[in-house]
């Protein structure tokens, strides 16, 4: 019996040695980590930025994992697109997706796979934006400024939709002073653009710019397809310069009639930078004159300019008897006040005729006042002009004055003299400007205005100047009268 047991024991050992033991392998602890997703879309693309997923095996981060993205149009889960290309940005990954449909809802997931398989993130939605065509315009501007206008050239003029050139139906050019919001508009049809170039002089027509001033301009294009909006260029600034002034002024025609001299010019044409201008804020017309042989001209005597030209009328007392004078027609133009003159015309001032004779007699008793008198005080001060009175016994007063000119003017009056008050009427029928209280004391005579007590004239007996002296020249009644 013992032997039998022994044999069984040996057989069992042999059986065990021929079949190795079974070992059971256990799976490690695997974890998948996903983070937040941020999505930005356009009408045809999406940018998906997500926390970079990773896998841990028994708490250790697995290296060499594969990360990708899958997306599909909502409702088309059977048409999945896989995106394997991405860029890393710190702890994030970025997928750039192109060729999407506008205004379309999509779904997406981020996936990661490694040694022990893979996992996907939760599904995230995104929607592309509505397609809006990109409308742009191109143009380059060159401005050549002048005095009253500017030459403008636009090149590379085009209206573009998503980079494709479109037909243009209308062009609008606007300009304004730099300090103003009031734009002046000039509209054109599209045929003004030739080969992408548009040339124009600003402003149009008879309008003008100001010299040496800052301006701005802009261009607007209206496309033929009214589905697209009109587009306006950037604002271009420029500054006008001082104009080149030229003029053609006719030679004056001079004429003396009685005591007046008339100078007339029948035409005066002015050009600013070659453009004729008739009316302008910096344009004046008139005449200058001088005595022959002198260098200095008179100041400008302004005159209105009409379709018949311009003219002035001057009192001959302003000129020296027997002298020759030169006249020029003048245009003063532009911001620099440049003067352009005509050819010189000459005229000789005739010797004066004999002054008019005084009335033979008057009918007033002025015996107490009779004699020659010189004004020595007026309104309490020595006058800055000369006045003489010559009074006859029967009421004739001769007035010799030198107020507005170095030459003498002569006026004759008949007077009324009652109760110490004197009044008079000139031989041309014009009454004196006032009546006067008269006070006589020795060789002084005082006249006080009856309407203005401050108007006091003090006269002293004297000898009249020699009115026949040609250097003193006496003219007949004209101009402002003292009495």
Summarize the structure.
With 483 residues, the chain is mainly beta.
Structure description:
- With 483 residues, the protein is mainly beta.
- It folds into four domains: 30-127, Immunoglobulin-like (Sandwich), CATH 2.60.40; 135-239, Immunoglobulins (Immunoglobulin-like), CATH 2.60.40; 246-348, Immunoglobulin-like, CATH 2.60.40.10; 367-475, Lipocalin (Beta Barrel).
- 4% of the residues lie in helices and 49% in strands.
- The protein has an eight-stranded antiparallel barrel with strand order 33-34-35-36-37-38-39-40. Strands 6, 7, 10, 11 and 12 form a five-stranded antiparallel sheet that branches. Strands 16, 17, 19, 20 and 21 form a five-stranded antiparallel sheet that branches.
- A hairpin with a 6-residue loop joins β39 and β40 (456-461).
- 22% of the residues are buried.
- The mean pLDDT is 89.
């Amino acid at each position: 019996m013992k032997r039998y047991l022994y044999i069984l024991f040996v057989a069992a050992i042999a059986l065990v040695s021929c079949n190795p033991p079974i070992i059971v392998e256990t799976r490690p602890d695997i974890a998948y980590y996903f983070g937040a997703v941020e999505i930005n879309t356009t009408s045809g693309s999406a940018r998906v930025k997500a926390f970079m997923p990773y896998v841990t095996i028994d708490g250790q981060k697995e290296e060499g994992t594969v990360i990708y993205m899958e997306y599909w149009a909502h409702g088309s889960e059977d048409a999945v697109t896989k995106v394997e290309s991405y860029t890393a940005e710190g702890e994030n990954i970025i997928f750039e997706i192109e060729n999407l449909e506008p205004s379309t809802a999509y779904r997406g997931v981020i996936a990661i796979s490694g040694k022990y398989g893979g996992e996907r993130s939760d599904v995230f939605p995104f929607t592309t934006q509505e397609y809006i065509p990109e409308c742009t315009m191109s143009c380059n501007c060159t401005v050549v400024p002048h005095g009253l206008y500017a030459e403008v050239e636009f090149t590379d003029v085009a209206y573009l939709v998503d980079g494709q050139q479109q037909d243009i139906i209308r062009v609008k050019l606007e300009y304004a002073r730099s300090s103003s919001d009031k734009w002046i508009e000039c509209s054109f049809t599209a045929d003004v653009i030739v080969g992408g170039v548009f040339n124009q002089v600003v402003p149009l027509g008879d309008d003008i710019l100001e010299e040496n001033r800052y301006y701005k301009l802009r261009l607007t294009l209206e496309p033929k397809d009214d589905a697209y909006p009109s587009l306006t260029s950037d604002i271009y600034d420029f500054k006008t310069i001082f104009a080149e002034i030229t003029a053609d002024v006719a030679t004056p025609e001079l004429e003396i009639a009685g005591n007046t001299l008339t100078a007339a010019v029948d035409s005066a044409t002015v050009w600013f930078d070659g453009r004729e201008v008739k009316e302008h804020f910096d344009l004046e017309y008139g005449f200058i004159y001088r005595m022959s042989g002198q260098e200095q001209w008179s100041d400008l005597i302004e005159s209105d300019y009409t379709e018949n030209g311009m003219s002035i009328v001057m009192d001959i007392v302003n000129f020296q008897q027997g002298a020759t004078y030169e006249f020029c027609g003048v245009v003063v133009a532009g911001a620099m006040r440049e003067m352009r003159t005509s050819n010189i015309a000459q005229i000789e001032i005739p010797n004066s005729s004999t002054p008019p004779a005084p009335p033979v007699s008057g009918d007033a008793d002025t015996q107490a006042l009779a004699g020659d008198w010189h004004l020595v005080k007026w309104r309490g001060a020595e006058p800055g002009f000369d006045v003489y009175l010559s009074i006859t016994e029967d009421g004739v007063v001769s007035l010799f004055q030198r107020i507005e000119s170095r030459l003498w003017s002569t006026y004759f009056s008949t007077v009324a003299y009652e109760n110490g008050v004197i009044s008079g009427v000139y031989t041309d029928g014009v009454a004196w400007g006032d009546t006067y209280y008269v006070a006589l004391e020795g060789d002084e005579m005082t006249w006080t205005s009856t309407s203005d007590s401050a108007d006091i004239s003090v006269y002293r007996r004297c000898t009249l100047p020699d009115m026949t002296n040609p250097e003193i020249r006496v003219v007949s009644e004209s101009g402002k009268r003292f009495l």
